[in-house]
Design brief:
3 helices; 6 strands; elongated; about 25% strand; alpha+beta
Amino acid sequence: MGRDNSAKKKMMTLALDRIQSVQLIDEMKFYDDENFNPDAYYKNVIGVTVNDGLLARNIILKLDRKNAPYVLTKPLHSSPEVIHNDKDGITITLSWCPTTRWKDFYWALAPALRYSLLPP
């Protein structure tokens, strides 16, 4: 991750495994942002993609009893809060930004986890 070379110095996350070559540029100076807080920057996302300006949304998931322990012991994110717990399963709320990683989770893992996405 780093900042682009524009005047805005926008944060960028690059996939190291996709970089094909690197070129040293002597006149480019390193920009050290002492105010950057990675915990705050990544707080509302799953993965490493942060869409600037996208606000977190409260997402409510209802998980069946079989899959609830998996999600509780291996949280998808740091914000899950159990709001309902009964014999059929649990309902949790999370504060997430709907990034590409969230969509990947939804389409790839959702059938296996047997959950329902409830309206906020």
